């Protein structure tokens, strides 16, 4: 009897802690992550895990008919309304229609050349075949490999950004590119490139972003005391850089007088202030047309969505698709649109 009471008490304490953390996470989209406020950055990264554990404890206490189930239930309900959807309850994705404008974003991780994180041959050829088979109108690559450009000849227009000490990025387009540029972020190798594209009778701007990485490789070592300490240090360094990059990109995009799409690797979740800054006044294609978790990063412990396609009010989102193909540490994301002016 004493052991059961002790176990019950411990479970109640855990329930209170995880419910409180999920409630606290409701503030994360509204708190710029700098200095001492970096704590909110850690909380935002943990939201998917907090949601899953609160669901677990809610059902545990429901089965045991204990009133403490109110705590995880309250945290889940408030989290859903304040943080946005963690899971899209659509039964199937809409097909991407040929007549719509389609965009694919993918952090290709150097096409597996040099990194060798995927232990099989010819992953680079698989990536090329995958993109060609999907046939999007516009492709945005992060961590691009300059040697692959000739393999995308079906795209007559391109903006390939290859500068020393900068992350290689590329935009390929079936439509004419009339202007290109790069927004180089300070004190980092990350950046956002853009292309102004003639689409039908309109000019649209497509940004391809790659924000500061946490430089933490998910593995069992992450759970060890020695490695987790170094990982926390890297996370603390990355949060303020991401915040600055989000603010710079948003300010830059607001100067554009024609329709804007922002896509790429945010390296942070939809629960962060980094995401809220970039996505303000824009539509997240996953929220509009996605299904399930929308997982875009291959993290084994819980689903993470850190790659996004965002469109301003000039676009109607027609479809969204996440691809569960192991070609990188990220998964490709594709969406399609119709200009409201059509």
TrEMBL record:
Q: Report the residue ranges that make up the Endonuclease/exonuclease/phosphatase domain in this protein.
A: 104-330
UniProt xrefs under SUPFAM superfamilies: DNase I-like (SSF56219)
Q: Which GO terms describe its biological process?
A: GPI anchor biosynthetic process
UniProt entry tagged with the keyword Transmembrane helix = yes
**Pfam families with a match to the protein in the record:** Exo_endo_phos (PF03372)
| UniProt xrefs under CDD domains | EEP-2 (cd09084)
Q: Does the keyword Zinc apply?
A: no
Any one Gene Ontology cellular component term annotated for this protein = membrane
Residues that span the membrane, as ranges:
9-31, 37-61, 68-87
Annotated InterPro entries? Endo/exonu/phosph_ase_sf, Endo/exonuclease/phosphatase, GPI-anchor_lipid_remodeler
Listed A to Z, the keywords are: Endonuclease, Exonuclease, Hydrolase, Membrane, Nuclease, Transmembrane, Transmembrane helix
In its UniProt record, a GO molecular function of this protein is: endonuclease activity
- What is the name attached to this protein's record? Endonuclease/exonuclease/phosphatase family metal-dependent hydrolase
Q: Which organism is it from?
A: Zeaxanthinibacter enoshimensis
């Amino acid at each position: 009897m004493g052991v059961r009471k002790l176990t019950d008490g411990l479970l109640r304490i855990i329930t209170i802690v995880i419910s409180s953390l999920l409630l606290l996470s409701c503030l994360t989209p509204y708190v710029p992550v700098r200095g001492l406020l970096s704590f909110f950055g850690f909380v935002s990264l943990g939201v998917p895990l907090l949601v899953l554990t609160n669901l677990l404890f809610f059902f545990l206490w429901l089965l045991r008919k204990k009133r403490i189930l109110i705590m995880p239930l309250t945290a889940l309900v408030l989290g859903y309304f304040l943080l946005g959807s963690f899971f899209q309850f659509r039964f199937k994705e809409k097909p991407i229609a040929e007549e719509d404008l389609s965009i694919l974003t993918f952090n290709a991780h150097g096409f597996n050349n040099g990194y060798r994180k995927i232990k099989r041959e010819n992953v680079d050829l698989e990536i090329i075949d995958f993109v060609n088979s999907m046939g999007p109108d516009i492709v945005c690559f992060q961590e691009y490999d300059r040697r692959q450009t000739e393999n995308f000849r079906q795209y007559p227009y391109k903006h390939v950004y290859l500068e020393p000490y900068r992350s290689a990025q590329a935009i390929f387009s079936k439509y004419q590119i009339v202007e290109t540029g790069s927004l180089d972020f300070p004190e980092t190798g990350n950046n956002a490139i853009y292309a102004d594209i003639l689409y039908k009778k309109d000019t649209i701007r497509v940004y391809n972003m790659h924000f500061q990485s946490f430089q933490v490789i998910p593995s069992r070592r992450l759970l060890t005391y020695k490695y987790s300490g170094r990982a926390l240090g890297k996370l603390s360094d990355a949060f303020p850089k991401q915040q600055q990059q989000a603010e710079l990109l948003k300010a830059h995009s607001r100067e554009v007088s024609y329709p804007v799409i922002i896509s790429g690797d945010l390296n942070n979740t939809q629960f962060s202030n980094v995401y809220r800054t970039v996505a303000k006044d824009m539509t997240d294609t996953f929220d509009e047309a996605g299904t399930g978790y929308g997982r875009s990063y291959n993290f084994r412990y819980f689903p993470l969505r850190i790659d996004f396609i965002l469109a301003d009010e000039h676009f109607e989102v027609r479809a969204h698709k996440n691809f569960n193909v192991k070609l990188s540490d990220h998964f490709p994301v594709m969406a399609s649109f119709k200009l409201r002016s059509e």
